[in-house]
Amino acid sequence: MAYYGYFNGSILPVEQIAFGITDLGLLRGFGLFDYFRTYNGRPFQWDWYWERFANSAAKMHLPLPIQKEEAYGVVMELIGKSSLPDVAIRFVMTGGYSPDSISVVNPNLVMITEEIHPTPHTQFEEGIKVILDDYVREMAEVKSTDYKRVILLAQAIRSARASDVLYQKNGEISELSRSNFFIFKGDRLITPNRHILHGITRRTVMHLAQNDFQVEERPVLLSELYDADEAFTTSSTKKVLPIVQIGELTIGDGKPGKRTLFLLEEFNELVGNW
Amino acid sequence: MAYYGYFNGSILPVEQIAFGITDLGLLRGFGLFDYFRTYNGRPFQWDWYWERFANSAAKMHLPLPIQKEEAYGVVMELIGKSSLPDVAIRFVMTGGYSPDSISVVNPNLVMITEEIHPTPHTQFEEGIKVILDDYVREMAEVKSTDYKRVILLAQAIRSARASDVLYQKNGEISELSRSNFFIFKGDRLITPNRHILHGITRRTVMHLAQNDFQVEERPVLLSELYDADEAFTTSSTKKVLPIVQIGELTIGDGKPGKRTLFLLEEFNELVGNW
């Protein structure tokens, strides 16, 4: 297996990509990224991912050093150089090397291919547990590199035998640490509309769902969990992953919900034919 | 001029120090640092800086890969290898290389020497202007690498012909972007006690001030700026730097205050004899 990456214009083996110590991503946490995968060797929802990446960069005042068409060419070259049928692709852009450890001069941009870490089958079959945390991400709509919170919570998540954390602040739910959140109340599919990163899988699932369900994108209160029939989370690796327990609260009958599994099936069908 | 650094046990020229792409500081903003300087070739307040660094590491659940005495030996070796009478020393510790881009295995630790960027003389003579921002740092007491906010404000600071930003949230003042904040009301010296990084220069100045002033360490309200006679900020490079304008508000008569200049003199005397 060979993974290659693009670093500021050059293509080289991933192991050879390295950032010098004056990089503002390292020194000042000033970085953003994106992450997507291929299905059948083709990047999934490329247009939407690129749009989001460009949007994150703009909100961090970083000029894109590469345009969309050229980036697509690089991504396809990197995919071709890997010997796997499907790979993940990660973009990382930082404030670049700084002469005074604070001023931005030119961003550093890396694009690499990676092994996909698939979500274990048992999680789809049994659903996952999440714990609650009183938190909301700063600049949640930007896919910045700021993930201190969930790394600090790793021990608490393990102790609770949970898989992840669901953030809420002042009684309003936003998102999981790296994925979006949905509930079903009957045939109403409800998902938070603010203080979130607008996930591409979230967007895909909302499109898929609108034929069969009433989709509501709006603020979601913590108190609404008590009469939710089903819950799930979405991300590029989690797809449509059932949530059966939130803190001490069991959702529905503690098993993956039928509407959730229907959406997972629809999603799998979509990506199978991608 | 030669700057050397320590990276996970090896000493090498700073230009040769580089972080691979799976580092959690880069990918997830999971890093902390510290920064201090020498006077007369000796690290200033080494004991206090080490204590703070160790404390930041503990709060980020990262085990220190080196103990204090060994670290001191490395710092002295790095200082010796530079050809300058005085240098800055920067520690950077991240969550290290991660197999899945989220789990911590072993931290990466770098210690390097750098050129000191001294604060311009005119700023001490004329004082500086700062703008206000409605913000408080997450985990302010930890010297994490999270400095997105001030980098995003760079243009606003320049446009206002200011030098820095003073954070306040809900009417309570915390700190400047990378330095602490003090006001004088008569002979009372007042500084925020919470939502701040506890600066080593701040601590030094509070010690120096207690002979001549009544020092109050407590929450400081934005409204208190209106009857402040003097204001200043402290950091390892700013020492005791007068602030003469905060947003549209002129402090005192718009010139550096006499008590502030007295403390600057005391500080310069202390470091001159270090």
From TrEMBL, chains A, B:
Pfam families: Aminotran_4
Catalytic activity: L-leucine + 2-oxoglutarate = 4-methyl-2-oxopentanoate + L-glutamate; L-isoleucine + 2-oxoglutarate = (S)-3-methyl-2-oxopentanoate + L-glutamate; L-valine + 2-oxoglutarate = 3-methyl-2-oxobutanoate + L-glutamate
Domain of life: Bacteria
Keywords assigned: Aminotransferase, Pyridoxal phosphate, Transferase
Cofactors (names): pyridoxal 5'-phosphate
Any one biological process term the GO annotation gives: amino acid biosynthetic process
GO molecular function: branched-chain-amino-acid transaminase activity
Enzyme Commission designation: 2.6.1.42
Pathway noted in the entry: Amino-acid biosynthesis; L-valine biosynthesis; L-valine from pyruvate: step 4/4; Amino-acid biosynthesis; L-isoleucine biosynthesis; L-isoleucine from 2-oxobutanoate: step 4/4; Amino-acid biosynthesis; L-leucine biosynthesis; L-leucine from 3-methyl-2-oxobutanoate: step 4/4
Protein family according to the UniProt entry: Belongs to the class-IV pyridoxal-phosphate-dependent aminotransferase family.
Alphabetical list of PANTHER family matching this protein: AMINO-ACID AMINOTRANSFERASE, AMINODEOXYCHORISMATE LYASE
The protein, known as: branched-chain-amino-acid transaminase
Organism: Larkinella rosea
Lineage of the species this protein comes from: Bacteria, Pseudomonadati, Bacteroidota, Cytophagia, Cytophagales
